[in-house]
Design brief:
The chain is α+β, with helices and mostly antiparallel strands and 691 residues long. The chain is built from 25 helices and 20 strands. The chain folds into 4 domains: 168 residues, Glutaredoxin (3-Layer(aba) Sandwich); 339 residues, Glycosyltransferase (Alpha/alpha barrel), CATH 1.50.10; 75 residues, no CATH class; 84 residues. A 5-stranded mixed sheet has the order 1-3-2-4-5, with helices on both faces. Strands 13, 14, 15 and 16 form a 4-stranded antiparallel sheet that branches. A 4-stranded mixed sheet has the order 18-17-19-20.
């Protein structure tokens, strides 16, 4: 057993019994490499990564391969979810060295004196195949090169260091105005759009929620401006993509939740891992889309996904877990796929007929001789084809899914990464709060509140937020994404259900962003705090990736906090970030959708609706203000017993004795930018104002 047995990361623990002499990242490994003059072999991955498991089984569990690694390298294993700082830096290094996209597992060979990489790759097989060298042969060649060509290794490192330094020089102002930048993103996304199947690009196809949200917000802003022509194509791109995903095999039709991506263009066969960050973002997106009108497909996806998150992804004490594996019993997708005869045995004849028609069991198998469920057609078309009454068909589908779900639960489940990540919980809190508000499910809002309480009480130590928690221990000082996503999520939770503790937490997070992450010279936010371990590069992320970039989220969240509190320092900080980011947006707007949304929210301040009064009594007021999809409107209901209030609101009035028949006093305020209306105390007047 190696040193990884002492770690809390499930991914690192998976490698604790490897014959490889693994180290976690830290001074012990680095000093040994420098003392013994050995190159570092850095392997980055995560617990639900399929190809990480494959490389582990082929190479890291093999005695022969391990002996070569141990003899010629100091071997470091990193969970990229615990150390996104290292992952971000060495993924970028891989892209710069190979001019190819990165991925996981990421394999990096590092020169210890500088910690700069001199050779990188992703997955390597044990024996040569797929056009890749065998891993053992590669190890020997790398070791020989390091020993014989040290000057060349050093020179390559110096070149890479210069590239990193020059990345900072790419910061520049854009001469294009804001409307041009916003329009550029919309046009670029249309060129990437798959008109036949929805989504962007071809296989593998990712959900890309930030891009979909940008198009939806673009449509809403154009639609609200009567002087402009409605952009129906932008809305069509959104609705087609959301529909294809919710019908597709990327969605778990029995248990809820979206998988990480589709391996094909048609959304049929996913990579079966489920990530918390995807599902939090998609919950929010589908909830927004439901603001345009009732849609049973979207509502079902929201309900089932939120229920999956509370049922399978929430710690008993509140925090949300990170991920579920693609594999069970060592086989990818085994938990999810079906044999046709097994489905027939479980279901009644009329139930099977509905399932067969809806999910294509009468068509050829789509995954290694089995069926991964996906809706081949719209529900209404299926009902009409079977000549069924709508209510009867709905009942048959519900009973069939319940039976299949119960049968599937008897299988060996996929592995689960049960660490709690602050950044990902922020996205989940945001999604659950929005879903609960849209579909009026208080239990989802309560679930989000439990997660927020967990982060605040278990993952804040000595005045700092920590990035990860597992087995009672919080580790790794928080990164930009942890603070920014958590602040964004807490603001959504406040909008769903006001709690004084959440406002205090939001203020703590906003202050920490300004004090520990913002560059005083440029206004941008570093990914790591000012007192973080010194690494070979200190990025300021701007582009959308699997998760939204910290600078975009931080700017949006600080704008939201600044407008809620009427606090200029948060607004000014966000404004500086947006101004700094315009140059990056101009280089390729569609890659910076989150930062663009921050720019839009800065240029067009939100309509803030604040309703004060007894909590039960303000419900009708809040419902009136929340009707529809209005991304520029933020609604807060602040109960009379709240002690923490924005400074511009009057303090609570002292209690007076009133008759039992008296109407509870309610006051509403409508604010645009930094200007607020006089209090509105009549519901009819309020409804007219918000409509």
């Amino acid at each position: 057993m190696n040193r990884l047995a002492r770690e809390t990361s499930p991914y690192l623990r998976q490698h604790a019994d490897n014959p490889v002499d693994w180290y976690p990242w830290g001074d012990e490994a680095i000093e040994r490499a420098r003392t013994e003059n050995l190159p570092i072999l850095l392997s980055l991955g995560y617990s639900s990564c399929h190809w990480c498991h494959v490389m582990a089984h082929e190479s890291f569990e093999d005695e022969g391969t391990a002996s070569v690694m141990n003899a010629h390298f100091v071997n470091i294993k990193v969970d990229r979810e615990e150390r996104p700082d290292l992952d971000r830096i060495y993924q970028l290094s891989h892209q710069l060295l190979t001019r190819q996209a990165g991925g996981w597992p990421l394999t990096v060979f590092i020169d210890p004196p500088t910690l700069l990489p001199f050779f990188t790759g992703t997955y390597f097989p044990r024996q040569p195949r797929y056009g890749l060298p065998g891993f053992t042969d590669l190890l020997m060649r790398i070791s020989e090169r390091y020993a014989a060509k040290r000057d060349e290794v050093k020179s390559h490192g110096e070149q890479l260091a210069r590239v990193f330094a020059n990345l900072e020089q790419l910061e520049h102002e854009s001469e294009e105005d804001d409307e041009t930048l916003l329009a550029s993103a919309r046009e670029q996304l249309e060129t990437m759009y798959d008109a036949a199947e929805g989504g962007f690009g071809s296989a593998p196809k990712f959900p890309m929620p930030t891009a979909i949200e940008r198009l939806l917000r673009h449509w809403a802003r154009i639609h609200a401006d009567l002087s402009l022509s409605a952009d129906r194509q932008a809305l069509n791109m959104v609705m087609t993509t959301l529909t294809k995903m919710a019908r597709g095999g990327i969605y778990d039709h029995l248990g809820g939740g979206f998988c990480r991506y589709s391996t094909d263009r048609h959304w049929v066969i996913p990579h079966f891992e489920k990530m918390l960050y995807d599902n939090g973002s998609l919950l929010a997106l589908y909830s927004d889309a439901l603001g345009l009108g009732s849609d049973p497909l979207f509502a079902g996806a929201v309900r089932e996904t939120a229920d999956w998150m509370t049922r399978e992804m929430q710690h008993s004490e509140g925090g949300y877990f990170a991920a579920q594996d693609a594999d069970s019993e060592g086989v990818e997708g085994k938990f999810y796929v079906w044999r046709r005869d097994a489905v027939k045995r479980i279901l009644a004849e009329d139930e099977y007929l509905v399932v067969e028609t809806l999910y294509g069991l009468d068509k050829p198998a789509n995954f290694e001789g089995k069926w991964n469920l996906h809706r081949r057609d719209a529900w209404r078309a299926v009902v009409e084809r079977l000549y069924l009454d709508e209510d009867q068909a709905t009942a048959l589908l519900a009973s069939a899914k319940a039976k299949l779900f119960a049968e599937r639960a008897k299988r060996a489940p996929p592995g689960k990464d049960e660490k709690v990540l602050a950044a990902w919980n922020g996205l989940a809190i945001h999604g659950m709060a929005k879903a609960g508000t849209r579909l009026k499910e208080i239990r989802w809002i309560q679930s989000a509140a439990r997660a927020a309480d967990f982060i605040r009480t278990r993952m804040v130590k000595d005045g700092r937020l920590y990035a990860t928690w597992k087995d009672g221990e919080a580790r790794h000082a928080g990164y930009l994404d942890d603070y920014a996503n958590m602040l964004h999520g807490i603001l959504s939770l406040l909008a769903a259900h006001w709690r004084d503790a959440d406002l205090d937490f939001a203020t703590f997070l906003g202050d920490a962003l300004l004090n520990h992450f913002q560059d005083p010279e440029t206004g941008a936010f570093f990914f790591t705090a000012h007192d973080h371990e010194k690494l070979i590069h200190r990025p300021k992320p701007t582009a959308d990736d699997a998760m939204p970039p910290g600078n975009g989220v931080a700017a949006r969240a600080l704008l939201g906090l600044g407008h809620l509190l009427g606090e200029p320092r948060y607004l000014d900080a966000a404004a500086r970030t947006v101004h700094w980011g315009r140059g990056f947006i101009a280089q390729h707007a569609a890659s910076h959708c989150t930062l663009l949304t921050a720019l839009e929210e800065y240029r067009h301040p939100p309509e803030l609706v604040v309703v004060r009064g007894p909590r039960p009594a303000i419900g009708e007021w809040l419902a009136a203000a929340r009707v529809g999809y209005r991304p520029s409107r933020v609604v807060y209901g602040i109960p009379d017993d709240a002690e923490r209030l924005p400074g511009y609101l009057p303090r609570p009035r002292p209690l007076r004795l009133v008759s039992a028949d008296a109407e509870p006093p309610i006051s509403a305020y409508l604010c645009n930018g930094l200007q607020c209306s006089a209090p509105i105390t009549e519901l009819a007047e309020f409804k007219t104002a918000v409509e």
